[in-house]
Amino acid sequence: MPETNAQPNALTFAPDTPDALPLHIVESAALAAFLADQPENVGTWVAASGFTGALRQACVVPGTDGAPVMALAGYGSAATRARGRFWLAAAAEKLPKATYRIASGLHDDTAEVEALGWLFAGYRFDRYKAQSPLLARLVAPEGLHIARLEAIAAGEALTRDLINTPASDMGPAELEAAARTLADRFGAETTVITGDDLLAQNFPMIHAVGRAAAPHRAPRLIDIRWGGNGPTLTLVGKGVCFDTGGLNIKPGSSMGLMKKDMGGAATVLGLAHMIMARDLPVRLRVLIPAVENAISGDAFRPQDILTARNGLTVEINNTDAEGRLVLADALALGAEENPDLMISMATLTGAARVAVGPDLAPFFTDDSEIATALQNTGGVVADPVWRMPFWEPYESMIEPGIADLDNAPSGGFAGSITAALFLRRFAGTDSRYTHFDIYGWNPAAAPARTKGGTGQGARALFSALPLLLGL
């Protein structure tokens, strides 16, 4: 696991104490009415402070003795809030050190999201440099499932830590160590197949992509199993710990963020934490093909033809389309057990970013029940997702003629769809399958989301699992 200096209570709620400061959440249009019910000195202080109830504003009001008696958090208007999320967290960043109890203004339908956002705001990646902590702590609002929210926050922090760690300290071996640490914490079983053993046990594409790396960064398949009862759930996460592009080397501008190319693996590990911490009644399997797509004399080449675990042949037309190759072998393994639900998550295509930008997590599924559940829960838990099509007419685009499949169709059209169609060929026909093509990175700081690694889709999935698996 990445080292951290974070305070252990940073992503947990504060205990309720008599000295917790009342916090009022006030919309701009409701400020006058709120102040009309307060002593005159409160209105005078708020006006002098320039507090208008706008988003990102916070104000601490002193009593006659100078000690604080309440705090206000600006909540703007419905129109301004629609252009973002976790707005209470934005005010939390402005509040001084204290414990706060929400006294008014928090609506039941947003209480969970805003409380979770406050926890997220406590995240700091401080492995390499000390960071100023969040000073304001929150007493959990009444009626919320505290342990569930804290488990989600911990899973998100794990995902962020893994993505934020540079490849020098987060290669395939370190990703394996992080997976083992998580598994050991919850009593899960872990097996790992490494290096040339991948060939011996029929994982040829994982081996081909990772074989050019240095011996201490050898490719591997991480396999975690947890839970003895309930429906079967298999999570597959792309673990490309650094992607040079291989012999089709990336330009420097495209290589700069490739430490995050294991964002799919980081996200499924964060989701696995949520599932195990809450002891969901499922039989969970997590598969992570962990590789470094490096350049050496042993690198796989354009126009090589590889034979995947399930027997399909794949023509390599771009070594920079490597993520779908390692996922293919892992998906084929997962499909052999016909799980009730199989999910793959990967920072897979630039085409997905062009289509929906960095803030939406596009997903592909043939199952309308899954699509509806994810879209509904994503909205409720502020984890926006967007359905994309497995568009059958594009199947011919991934069929090169010389082999069963093409890993990088020419033309540049529908890149995220053709990648998803490629993966579907390995997911089997008896499993309910959904693929997420995530970005895994927040390009600019936002409320509750520091710049850097971020989880996408995990909260929506976690919230949807009871419906999807009949829990």
TrEMBL record:
Keywords: Aminopeptidase, Hydrolase, Manganese, Protease. SUPFAM superfamilies: Macro domain-like (SSF52949), Zn-dependent exopeptidases (SSF53187). One of its GO terms (biological process) is proteolysis. InterPro entries: Leucine_aapep/pepB, Macro_dom-like, Peptidase_M17_C, Peptidase_M17_N_1. Gene3D superfamilies: Leucine Aminopeptidase, subunit E, domain 1 (3.40.220.10), Zn peptidases (3.40.630.10). One of its GO terms (cellular component) is cytoplasm. One of its GO terms (molecular function) is metalloaminopeptidase activity. Pfam families: Peptidase_M17, Peptidase_M17_N_1. Residues 318-325 form the Cytosol aminopeptidase domain. Belongs to the peptidase M17 family. This is Leucyl aminopeptidase family protein. It comes from Pseudooceanicola spongiae. The lineage of its organism: Bacteria, Pseudomonadati, Pseudomonadota, Alphaproteobacteria, Rhodobacterales.
